[in-house]
Design a protein that fits this description.
By secondary structure, this protein is an alpha/beta fold. The protein has two domains: 168 residues, D-Maltodextrin-Binding Protein, domain 2 (3-Layer(aba) Sandwich), CATH 3.40.190.150; 125 residues, D-Maltodextrin-Binding Protein, domain 2, CATH 3.40.190.10. Strands 1, 2, 3, 4, 7, 8, 9 and 10 form an eight-stranded mixed sheet that branches. α3 packs across α10 and α7 crosses α12.
Length: 332
């Protein structure tokens, strides 16, 4: 009897140990089910300075994310190097769902492709969670500028090459690509000034008269237009912006340049599936929340939600486009 009893005890012990191993404290699946832990906040990294469109959008979705996830969502700005500092922090974080980040292209697409930048991440280091908006680029000058049309500006930049200063929000950002594309297709030459902390820094320099031409996103200038602090010469969308209906597109003016910034949210690659599902659902709810959409629209931003899979595909397509034009940007 004793041997049978010993076997029974051993079997019971094995079952007990197996159940313990599958319990919520020792299983990634169980841990995901209990995510997020009560009282543990989610950090949302913004790779640009406060005040720009990326930062504003993140702060609009954060309260809805808090409600959906049941924990605090803390927006943390880590600007510099055209977004690379923040993207490095994001991809270096543990893929446990407690760190996510705003990802804007082409900056997030370009930085790992240019080996000279020494990025410690690749596209595969990010796990896309959803896209929020596509924001077309614009070109503007001071209200008292002698340039009253896009052609006026192009003619002047051809006549006095590399003399007219123009802003970007950093090296190899959307504005940088747009400026070089304009130069390649028109023969104009600008003296580009890169503001690595983002749109707020570039806008301050423009308003202060330190640069003559502002190249930025439509959302960054809607208030400036209302305040008559900028004269827009063109928008680089497929069609006119509903927020800037009086501004003609580049194509309308005979310049075949299309440029826009796509903004979404991502996590470090390797999230547990259930955590990714919760984050994706919460972000969709936040991005498509009527109050958030209304506030975004007031800022000149039209919501254009893409799911995680759709955003990943869009990201890959942008990467292929960037690879083709990167050599041109690397020269400036």
């Amino acid at each position: 009897m004793r041997p049978k009893a010993s076997l029974a005890v051993a079997a019971a012990l094995c079952i007990s140990l197996a159940l313990a191993a599958c319990g919520p404290n020792n299983s990634s699946a169980g841990g995901a089910q209990n995510w997020p832990r009560k009282g543990k906040p989610v950090e949302l990294i913004v790779s640009f300075a406060p005040g720009g469109a990326v930062d504003t959008a993140a702060r609009l979705v954060a309260p809805i994310l808090e409600k959906e996830l049941g924990t605090n969502v803390e927006v943390v700005n880590k600007p510099g190097a055209g977004g690379q500092i923040g993207y490095t922090a994001l991809t270096s974080a543990k893929p446990d769902g407690y760190t996510i980040g705003a990802t804007g292209s082409p900056s997030v697409v370009v930085s790992p492709l240019d080996k000279s930048r020494g990025a410690k991440y690749t596209r595969d280091s990010f796990q896309p969670l959803g896209m929020q908006v596509i924001d077309p680029a614009v070109v503007g000058v001071a209200p008292d500028s002698p340039y009253n049309s896009l052609q006026d500006l192009i003619d002047a930049a051809k006549k006095t090459p590399s003399k007219i200063t123009a802003s970007t929000t950093g090296i190899q950002t959307g504005e940088h690509f747009a400026a070089v594309d304009i130069e390649q297709k028109t023969g104009a030459k600008f003296a580009l000034v890169h503001f690595s902390e983002g749109a707020s820094q570039a806008t301050a320099a423009f308003l202060g008269g330190h640069v003559q031409v502002y190249i930025g996103s439509a959302s960054d200038v809607t208030d400036l237009v209302k305040q008559k602090k900028i004269k827009l010469l063109g928008v680089m969308g497929e069609q006119r912006s509903e927020f800037l209906p009086d501004t003609p597109t580049f194509k309308e003016q005979g310049v075949d340049v299309i440029s826009a910034t796509a903004r979404g949210y991502s996590a470090p690659a390797g999230l547990p599936a259930e955590v990714a599902t919760k984050l994706e659902a919460a972000l969709k709810k936040a991005i498509e929340d009527p109050a958030v959409e209304s506030k975004m629209k007031a800022l000149g931003l039209q919501t254009n939600y893409l799911s995680a899979d759709e955003y990943k595909k869009f990201w890959g397509e942008q990467e292929e486009t960037v690879k083709a034009v990167l050599p041109l940007v690397a020269k400036k």
